[in-house]
Amino acid sequence: QSTWGTLDSLRTAANQSDKSMCQTAFLLVTVPDAPSFADYIAVFYGLVPFILIATVVVAFLLTRRLSLLLCFGFIVTTTVINEAILKTAIQGPRPELSCLPGYGMPSGHSVLAIGFVVWFLLELRFHFTWEPKVRLVSAIAAILLCVPVPWSRVQVHDHSPAQALAGSLEGLVFASIWFWLLFRSMVHNEPRHLSHPCIYRLGILNDYTIKTRKESEVLRHIMVAMEPDEGAELSLTVDDEFL
Predict the structure, then answer these.
(1) I want to staple 149 with a disulfide (CB 3.0 to 4.6 A). Which of 43, 68, 82, 113 is the partner?
(2) Cα separation values, 169 from 77, 103, 126, 166, Å
(3) What dihedral angle (degrees, nearest 10) is formed by the CA atoms of 192, 220, 121, 65?
């Protein structure tokens, strides 16, 4: 059985810990004094949200893809709503064995992990034009990486089951709303620079693409109809030179 150490003396009346004295917290994850194998796994999954954030930021800096920028916007938005609004309003304390400060309802790790996997699966279904095998492998990898995060928060006693469940549901709802708003408002076309001058100077690429064959055919006919007649251009050029 894992020994979690004596943390009661470190807590204030509001169930807060003195982090300057506590040595069993690493990147907002409580680490048991004598961790079991399950604890090691849980600590790793507790770091997954930070891995996701770093991956999204680095990938965006390398590719300048709009989908990655919007994903980072989703992370920032949900974090602000959860940490600054919901947790402050609910003020649900963390479990006694947690070595983290602040309130625990809902679980921020669960919000980010479940929100990310829901967003990613929706993007795979409606936007990303990867090969079917690549989409399948990517979906399985995202599920295996993100879905166990709420369990990990309960395993290391940083959140109660109710807090982890609430965070998971919050992530599911937020990701669905975020994707729905973007799906209705964004222009779905082949990758191109956005037309807004500020965005254009940043070199951001719009990688939202048409997925269905019907939509692709409609878009192709529209583009063909909008293309100028080369013969007319040539005739106009000759007439100008003649004049």
Answers:
(1) 113
(2) 16, 18, 22, 5
(3) 0
Residue 21 CB-density burial (10 A; 0-12 exposed, 13-18 middle, 19+ buried) = exposed
Q: Is the pTM of this model over 0.90?
A: no
Beta carbons within 8 Å of 96's beta carbon, 6+ residues apart: 7, 8, 11, 15, 157
d(CA 218, CA 110): 40
Single-letter code of the amino acid located at 210: I
Tokens representing 165? 């469940």
Residues present in the chain in total: 243
Q: What is the mean pLDDT of the chain?
A: 76
Query: Taking the chain, what is the end-to-end CA distance rounded to the nearest angstrom?
Result: 95
Burial per residue of 47-75, b for 16 or more beta-carbon CB atoms within 10 angstroms, e otherwise:
bbbeebbeebeeebeeeebbbbbbbeebb
pLDDT, tens digit (0-9, with 9 covering 90-100), for 89-129: 999 999 988 888 889 999 999 999 999 999 999 888 877 77
Could you identify the residue written with the tokens 């996701």?
52
Cβ atoms of 158 and 151 closer than 8 Å: no
Cis before 197? omega within 30: no
